[in-house]
Structure formats: structure tokens, C-alpha cells
# Entry
Amino acid sequence: MVGSNIVSKQSSTIISLDRFSYAYPGSSDWVLRDISLQIKAGHCYFLHGPTGSGKTTLMLALRGLLPTGSRQTGEIRRVSSNYAGHDQGFAGLIMQNPRTQLLNATLGSDVAFGLENNQVDPLQMPLKVEQALEQVGLKLPFSQPVDSLSMGQQYRACMAGIMVMDPFFVMFDEPMTQLDHEGREKTLALIRDLKKSGRTVLVCDHRSELLQEIVDQSWYLDEKGALYDRARVSENLSNSSGSEINKVVESSSFRDKQSQKDNILHQPRADAECIIRVKGFRFENGHHGQVIPALSFDLVRGEKIAVCGPNGSGKTTLLRSLVGLVQPFTGSIEIFGRTPRMSDLRGRVSLLFQDPQKQIFETTVFAEVAFSARRNGLSEMQISEHVNTLLERLELDHLATASPHLLSYGQKHLVGLAAVLAGKPEILLLDDPFAGLDRQRTRKIMELVTEIADANEITIIWTSHDTDSVANWADRVIDLSEMKLNHSQKKPGPISAKTLIATPPSVQKRSLGTGLMLILSLSLSMAAFAARSPVLLAGLTAMNFGLIIVSGPKPLRFMRKSVVFFFWQAVLVVLLYGFRFGLPEGIIPGLQTAWQLFLAFWPGMIFISSNSQPRIMRTLSHFLPYRIAFVVAVCLRFLPMLLTEIEEIRETQILRGARIMVVDLKNPCFWPDWFSCLAVPTLIKTLSLAGDIALAASARDFGISTKRTVWSGD
Amino acid sequence: MKLSLKDSLFLGFCAVFIVSAKMALRLHLKIPGHSMFFTMFFLLIARGCVKHRLAASFSGLLAGILTMLLGLGKGGPLLIVKFILPGLIIDLLAGVIPGLFQSVVLCMLAAGLAAASRLLTSLLIDFMVGMDTTIMLQHALIKSAGSIFFGMASGAAVPAVIRKLISHGVIDEQGRP
# Structure
């Protein structure tokens, strides 16, 4: 816990790597090569390097989370005597994406996850959770749904989930990438506090300038996985920061440029064709439910526009509205002079999301890039010429026959970009596509995109939460952060955790416990199979009615649902009895059988409608092994996220030319598209998500013991 | 062989796909048995991607629990049996037929057999309520004919998807994600 006494000696080594090399299972290439380093107590370290150089792998090695079955040489040494006195953890790792690290639905239960795995007494948990939340500046109710938090708050919730385990050594994997300005400031404050409290901190990020005041030592990991020591950060800055200085110059010039551009926001070029027209457009923004002020702009052919704003400001919603996937709250949108519809825009508009894995499905880079060109009706000769030119310009020509899934993160982005450009779209929508890339690579890609767009008169709308990264090349900038309204009013205000512990919100007031209801429901269900007389069936029906009255939250609504179910089942059974025994004779036995069948299922329906998912889950966890209970709970938790991901994959693929709209089902020639363009990327994404969640759970000590205690704070 | 947490979660997500397909389609299509298309597809994918002898059964178990928790089916706790049985059949067939996931015909047969387990479940329930034998068979056939048809159709797509996943390197030849 933060604020606990640090017993280690300052400057004593807590972990060291000696000529450590590592290769992932099944890979012939070393990710890390001959790395030697020493991490000392109370120091703050900064690790940077190009995208895909192995920074995350190094952090996983330090945390002891590398996959088994891999090749490794050298040695990792942990000096336990130098961090003694910490309740649970030696090292805590906070990874890049907060959404895959929030494993429980409510804030309190999620933060307590690590405590449960370490079998902390449930009575001690609320206080520890409260302290951890206070430490990260997140004073919200334990029962606060984590999905209702902003991206910055979610990241801090992840930090609390690690801090509650009282780690001595805290690692942050690219904390600044996903966060807006406010989120970054708060994260930096926490890192400062951690260092002040004597903990060791390692931050891996692309933005060294934000951390220069705190960092004691900086390392650079090159593309081959070799680590270089870069003396003190201050020296580093003075020696190498041509790039940093350039950035400062760029930022200031950007501000001038932006202020000029803001003035011409509604003034398209008179001689060019207007292809996007947005008038008085408002949309309801996400779970906060706020509506942004009206947005109006026209976009002419070949124009490039940047849409900037903090996390949750509605950038993605705006893009989705432009292709007709979200209806405006008020106002209108016209693309090519018509209200946007996906089926009309297929092939003319392309959309590229942040994660390139969402669209990649072919087995070679060439085939992947050629897909949309082929679907847009280009001849094989034109395809070959066009695709080869694109690959050459993006420096991917030597990878034409390689599997796109085996490329590095940065190369996958390039393939994704080439794939959407190959269809020769008239409009290119880029949804924060290079958030995880280093600045050098992003700049290079932006130059290429601009060049290709200028040559082909492609209109571009590019969203980003990082204004600096996109605004330099854009003709105009729309800043959604200045358009937000009443956001603070919608956010839940700070509430004392103690108050909430005293008055936990109840899901429903029920007279029967979930366990007792489960037993009763099962008994009634089994009894229905044995009941062969109308009297017994009537008795069982009465008992079920009693159960509904005692436990059912909305008896009338439930009864209506039950009657509909009984009716359809009875029709089928009575009809079958009618055919078998003749209609007048078959009706009574048919109805009795249908009644009996219905009574076998009805208690199950009552049980489900009377209990919330978490309650059922908690009850089942008494009967199921904890691992299965965890998997079920996590799958339920991530179901909405996964469905959103699938929807995004579908949207991207449709715009690339995939025939996966419901109307396309009429043509069997396009049926394979559902598997290759939708099922394959979905499964790949699922495998990746499963890996991320497993890693997040392991980072919080899931599975270190065969037993867990259970959080009951909310 | 113990399932890794990542494998367990992948199987859990296969279960989630089964359930969400059931949830999404039951309102739109009124064809009996159509949800078996996705059930069989994802149970076969589960076993094809994770070479654990009970991978499909585990996925089926989770799908049953999830369906029950989400209130989608009408059988309460009995739903779990409805999902585990096809999973067990797929696991059994994958254990005895080595090249199951490379062959379209074998996958279709396996899916058809697994989907036919709905016939068994239906027969069992009808038998327990004491239904007339002829009606019991008709009832079970009506309920399961569509399931077998859709199950077999989904089986045809599985080898191509598995091949793509292997060629992408996201699962290896041994089926480890």
C-alpha cells in the first residue's frame, strides 16, 4: 500500500539481468539480445525505442510473465532481501490498454482482484481498496461500473488494481499513448508520488519529454532488441534532443497554424467539388449521454481534415456517422450529395482503425492489399501494377509474399493502410490509426499518406487524441474538446468510500437467497418430470406461482413472457398428439404433456429472472472450480466489448468491398466472405484478447494459489 | 494436459460467440435449428484451435452456463446438458479421427453427429415426461432436423478457417493459440 514504510535500502539492486536473451515460442528470432541491466531501489527508469523493439517483452521478463516453452539465455536475478516488507507483490505491471485489464464489472471488485488471488481476508479488503483508489486520485463508489469511467479513469483504476497489492517495483507500459492531456497529467503525478514514496518505477513510453524531471536513468532498446544505457536524462536531452527541440518548434508552429486554420473552418475552396456536407450535426455521446454542440463543415475533394479531442469526446462516433452507422441526434450529413448508407459507400470510402488486426485476413501481404482493388472491379493487370506500386512506396515490396500476421506491429499498420488505399477510395477515414507507433514512424507514414492522397485527390478525415501528431499536415482542424458541454455535470461526484461501505447498493430486495432458489428451482423442475396427474401438475404450478410472487421482480411481465412460451410449446405438442390420436382425443393428453414440459422448464426461467448475473455467478462459484467461474465471469464481462469489436471489423471490411451485409446473403458466391473477411479476423482478435486478459490476470497473481478469497465490498 | 488460462479464455470466448449468435439471431430468423450453425462452428473451432481432449466440451459447458445466466434458453440448469453433449461428441471424434480438421467431409459428419445430440436431449426430456413413443420421435425429429442440417453446413467452413489461422501463425500445427 502506498504510504507503507519502505524497508529497502535506497540504491540497493532489487533486480538485475545478466546477458539475457529471449525468443518467443516457435520464433527463430531473438526479441531481446544480450541484455544486462541493474534496477535499484527508489530509482525511476525510462525505457524507449522504436515500435516492436521488445520493450513490453523486457517488462514481462522483469515481472516474470514470459510465456513458457520459449528460448532464453542469461540470467534474471531478484534480490528479495531488498524489498522485504511488502504485503503481496514484488513487481506490478500496468499494461497499455486499460480496457483489457479491468477484469471485473465494478470498481471495487476490480481493484480487489489481486487481493482475492493473494487470499487477503475479505474484511481487510475495503480499507486497502479505498487507500489504493485514494492513491491514484479516484474517489468513486466501489459499485461504480468500470465501463462508465473515462479512458483516463480506467487507466487509474488499473493502477489502483496494482497499487493495492503493494508492489515495490512498478512498471508502466506506454502510459501516455492512450491518454489525453488530463489523463497524462494525473499519471505523471502518480509516478512522481511513487518515486517520492521510495518505490522503484520503470516507464516505457515514446514521449521522453514528459518524464525528464523524474527519470534517473534512461535506456534505449533498438530494433534488434539490444539495450543501450543513455546516461542521465538531462545529459541525454542535451546530447540527443534534436528531435525534442524539433518537437517543441513543431508544437509552437502548429499552434500558429491551427489558429489560422480555425478561422477558415467553414470556408471550403470555391473551385473544388464538395463531397461531405455536415450541417448542425449533434450526436449523443456514449454512456455519459451528453450532446455536443452543433457541428457544421463542408469538405471538398482532396482536402485533409484533422478531428482532435480527448478520449470519449466523440471522434469515432463522428466517423461512424459519416458512413451512416450512427444517426445524428439533430442535423444532417451528406456524402456525395446523399444521406450516407454503407451499401452506397462501399468501395468509395475506406476506414482504418487503430488496430490493423481488425481487417487483416489474407495469407499474404499482396493478397491482403489486393482484396479491395479486386472487389472494386480492377483488372488483374491493374491490380498487380497498383498493388506493387503501393507496396513499393510503403517499403513493403520485399514482404509481398509474407504472412501479414507475422509482421511487426509497425509493418502491420502499413499493410492495413496499403489495403485501404488499394481500393482507390475517394474518402479515407483514419480513426486514430497510429496511436501506438513511435513519432518517427508516424511522421513517415503521414508523409506517405499525404503524398498518395495529394496524387489521387483523396479526401482524408483523421482523428486523434494527440493534436500535435496530426495537425501539421491537415488543411483544417476540428477540436472537439472545445465543443464538449456539461461533461462534469454528468460525471459522478466524489463519494467517500467509507460511506459506501456502510451502505452497499443492493441489486434487488429478495426474500430467498440465490443458493436456496437454485435448489428449489432444480427440485421443482425434477418434480415436473415425475408428475403424471393434473392434480400434481396443478400443485406444482401453484408452487411455481408462489416462487414468482416471493422472488420475481416483475411478476406480471414475467407471467406474460411465460404464457407466450407455454402457448407455442403447447401448439406443437397438441398438434402432434392431434395427428397421432385424432384432434378431439389428442387435445387433452397433448395439453397435459405440454403443461408438464412447461413445468420442467419454468422454474429455470423463474430462477434466471429473479437473480442478477453477479449473484448467480457468485452462487455458481461455490459449486464450480474457481478457474471456470473466473472464465465465465470474464467472458460475460467482455461480451459487449467483443461484440463492438466484431461490429468494427464488419464495418471496415464492408467498406473495403467485402460482401458481408445481410442483402449479400442472396448471392452464394459471396458466402465465403463471411468466413474469410469476418470470422478469421474475429478469431484472430479473440485469440489476442484472450492472451491480453490472461496476461492481465497473471500480472495480478491469478492462479498463484488454488484458493481465493472473495471481495464483498460492493 | 492442463489448459492454460489463455486457452481457457479462448474457449470461453467461443462459448460467448455461440451465445451471442443465439441472442442476435433468434429474433430475426424463424428457421428451426439455425442457431446450431454457430454452435457447431464454434465448438469445432474450439477443438481445432486448442488441442485439449476436452476443449469442445469445456466450451460447451461454458456456453451452457452463459446461456443459463443470460436467460436465453428455456431449460434453466438443463441447458448445460444441451451444450455439453455436442461438445463431448466433437471431442470424442477429434480424438479418434486424427485428420478431422483438415477434411471438409469429416468435419461435416462430425458436426452432423454432434448436432444430432439435440435429438437425444429432446428424446430424453420427452421420455421423462412420459410422452407417447411415436410423438416423442416426431417431436425430436422436428426439433433436431434443422439442427443437423445447419450443423453440417457450418462444419463445411471449419477446415478453411483453421487452415487460415494456422497459416497466419496465430495457432500452430498442434493447435496451440
Chain A touches chain B through 69 residues (CB under 8 Å). The longest strand of chain A covers residues 13-23. DSSP finds 24 helices and 19 strands in chain A. The longest helix of chain A spans residues 626-656.
